Task: structure prediction
Amino acid sequence: MTPTPVNPEVLEAMSDLFVSLPHSRTLGFRYLGTDGRRPVLCVDWREDLVGNPVTGVVHGGVITSLVDTTSAISVTAQLAEFETIATLDLRIDYLKSATPGKTIHCRAECYRLASQIAFTRAVCYHDDPADPIAHGVATFMRASNPKPMLPEAEQ
Amino acid sequence: MSAYMERFLALRDEKRFDDIIEAIPYASMMGMTFGENEAGELLFSLPFHERNVGNTTLPALHGGLIGGYLEIAAQVHLMWNRESLETPKIVDFSLDYLRSGRPQTLYARCEITKQGKRVAHVLIEAWQDDPSRPVAVARAHFLLTTAS
Result:
């Protein structure tokens, strides 16, 4: 059985928020939906995201941002209530170069939500998650700041 | 040999820092710069830009952006300090976020911890007001030779 988001309202609001953050918009991140509790985001190839102009390959840093953002959203799929989370650490393995011109997808899952820490893993790919470009693991601090990330959630 | 690396080394020899950043589209979009300090070591700076924000209520710099910035810094630092005509290729990157990045300039410096025949290890530190209070520390492995 595929699990559903713990609180769809939290996931929806937080995924909206995360892809609308200035830096996510700058990079052009799009939220494609959540498969069970695994959100999928994508970023289209763009000339200004390239790291090596000779090859046209998107810079690894774009993948870092995509993994960070998708992983954060995967944590919110496990949350019962709104809370602010912050990345504690992040590791990316670059398995192979991204193909110039192709959209990069990222699918993440929060595989353990502990009382203070959330643990995530993510995979980046073009067409098939089984043929990955990069793999990322991250941890997030829960309730990292009393100030809510969603302005409207403020009391 | 890599045409990119050849151009990089030519720009380096003339210390054309801005032209190097301009040659890396993603670095130039981010708005980062770099130069040499009194000791001749590379110092990277990322002036604050609204487009780099990842938390609008604090506000704070986007964690992924900090990662991207440090990755570019590590790569440029490595290319600057080597004579090879191969472009180093990042293998893995690990980043610890220690403090949130406030809306001000983020500095970074790198250290090549190990340079082997095939792999280099680079440490990266980022801070704002005080180098002893880092915003993030990271490490990366780069592949120095590419199998054809």
About this structure: The longest strand of chain B covers residues 106-115.
